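Lecture 7 notes: from sequence to structure.

We start with a single chain of 186 residues. Read the sequence below before looking at the structure.
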Amino acid sequence: MSEEKTKETAETLEEETAEETKKEKKPEKKKTKKDKSADKIKEIEDALAEEKDKRMRLAAEYDNYRKRTSSEKLSIYDDATAKAVEELLPVADSLTMAMQNMADAPEEFKKGIELVSNQLKTSLEKLKVEAFCEIGDDFDPNLHNAVAKIESDDFEENKISAVFQKGYKIGDKIIRHAMVQVANCD
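Now the structure, written as tokens:
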């Protein structure tokens, strides 16, 4: 019986060892599957982050494109308006001169000139065209074209003493520089 017991004990030990080996192998397989799953998850997360980055860059590029084209459209509109207004400025100058020199004109004539002048002024305002330059303003070579200078006690240094032609602009775009006389400049 001792041989039989020894055989049974040996078989029992072998079975227990086999089961322990299986148990040890299973966690390794599960660990391997977990590692594979973790690697796959990491790859998917990286791919997702890359796609998210691409989409964010694409959205930023589109936003920049939209802003740039909007700015270009506005610039084209301003340029076209400036070109059209530039052709009308001699009419505005003529009306201004007519209004300055109509002291002896009949009252109906004065009202007609004033009406036409006001209509032109209103039309230019609708186009966002601004007239600039008044006597007493500071001289700015970016806005004004000085065609004469005088020495005068009535004006401070570099002040506009006479306006020969008004200047016009749309926003920051100069359509025509004002033609002026400057007092007390060096």
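The mean pLDDT is 85. Keep this in mind for problem set 3.
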